[in-house]
Amino acid sequence: MKLVPFFLCLFTFLCFSAATAQYTETINNNRPGGSQGAFSVGTNILQFEGGFGIGSENHALLKTDASAFTVDYSVRFGFWKEELEVSLTGEFQSNNVVDSRGAAAFEYAQRNFKSNTLGAKYLVYDPYRKQALMGPNLRSWKANNTFQWRELIPAISVYAGANFDNADNPFSAQDGLSISPKVSIQTQNNFRSGFVLVTNIIADKFTTQTPTYGYIVTLTYAVSDWFSLFIEDQGFDSDFYADNIVRFGLAGLITRDWQVDASILYSLKDTPTRTFARIGVSYRLDFHKEDEYLEDKGKPGREKKKAKRDKAKKEKKKKKNYFEVDEGDTGLK
Fold first, then answer.
1. Can you give the pLDDT at residue 56?
2. Residue 31 lies in a domain
3. Cα separation of 235 and 267, whole Å?
4. Is the pLDDT of residue 4 over 50?
5. Integer CA distances (angstroms), 55 to 19, 70, 95, 276, in order
6. The CATH number of the domain where 161 resides is what?
7. How many domains does one find in the chain?
8. What is the structure's pLDDT at 145?
9. Which of 14, 23, 192, 247 lies at a CB distance of 3.0 to 4.6 Å from 30, suitable for a disulfide?
């Protein structure tokens, strides 16, 4: 299968609302799409994302019809730096298949994990930090409220992880390797109009005999502070399975730490034709204590930290000299 040129395809997304920093007042989420945004959840944030779906997979060539049930999950944690997060993501699927190739149709079941991936993501470039430092244009309402060319410059992050597979899995190629790598690049544009665009370019299981290469592109629109819509295009190519998938749906905030979502998935090919309806929920445990301010980043941040270290050394030396006793002096008179 030839992939649609992904530089011309939509763009991908992750979070419910646009953010100009890692930590946000409301939950920063990858659902209900399949892509990862460029930004992490923030330091000391433990976040759970999950859902289930029901649907069908009908293969025109194999003459099989499957009713399917899926459970997907993700656990994300931000630590050390605002730019860094680790995550465990996966999906379990159960199919009841009717095979009609013979004189009499017969049924069988397929149940296993479609994916289990442990990885880490790091934000390497954030254009919104510089824009925030510059502040609004005090002389021009138009400059602050209309499209600017600089909005086309995205935030960029990189991801690296390991896939864990098991034997006799009907949803993956049997290459004899239970662990394989996955890497990707994520970009994210937060537009003033309320649209958020995220693009993922992915290389998966490239050390096996059936590597997979693909993209995900999601476009999200925030209708309000509590409600958003999204549309997504995903394409991937592999000798084991290739497809082009469209997703669309909506998400809503219950509280700043709770989000619910609903979506539809549809594949654009008939080997198999996949149709799923999904619902999900996301929740975060917020242990974030101290914001990492924008001015503490880059060269100004390094200079500020150096000045703080020098000041601490001087205070320590001053304290040491104050309590120092001359050699041979017992301190008694």
1. 94
2. no
3. 10
4. no
5. 33, 9, 10, 4
6. 2.40.160.40
7. 2
8. 57
9. 14
Instruction: List CB contacts of 130: < 8 A, sequence separation 6 or more.
Output: none
**Can you state the percent helix, strand and coil of the chain, rounding each to 5?**
15, 50, 40
Between the alpha carbon of residue 222 and those of residues 45, 67, 190, 230, 239, the distances in Å are 23, 34, 11, 9, 38
Distance CA 106, CA 61 (A): 16
* Contact (CB, 8 A) for 262 and 278: yes
Residue 124, in any domain of the structure: yes
Examine the pLDDT at 185 and tell me if it is beyond 90. Answer: yes
pLDDT digits (tens, 9 = 90+) for 203-218: 999 998 889 999 999 9
Residue where the block lists tokens 């510089």: 130
> Which whole-number Å values give the CA distances from 169 to 46, 154, 256, in the listed order?
30, 38, 39
* Nearest of 197, 199, 203 to residue 180 by alpha carbon: 203
- Kindly report the backbone phi and psi dihedral angles of residue 308, in degrees, each rounded to the nearest multiple of 5, phi listed first: -65, -40
* Range among 146-150, 186-190, 287-291, 322-326 with highest mean pLDDT value: 186-190
Which residues constitute the domain of residue 315?
A: 294-324
Strand 195-204 and strand 227-237: the pairing is unpaired
- The answer on 300 and 210 residing in a single domain is no
**Do you find a cis peptide bond into 272, omega within 30 degrees of 0?**
yes
163 and 94 in one domain? Answer: yes
Same domain, 51 and 115: yes
Distances (CA, A) of 6 to 214, 222, 265: 8, 24, 19
Closest CA to 198 of 175, 210, 215, 177: 215
Q: Label each residue of 46-61 as H, E or C.
A: EEEEEEEEEEEEEECC
Main-chain dihedrals φ then ψ at residue 152, nearest 5 degrees: -75, -10
Structure confidence at residue 116 (pLDDT): 95
Least confident of 42-51, 90-99, 177-186, 285-294: 285-294
Same domain (yes/no): 169, 266: yes
Each residue's pLDDT tens digit, 120-151: 999 999 987 655 545 554 455 455 556 566 77
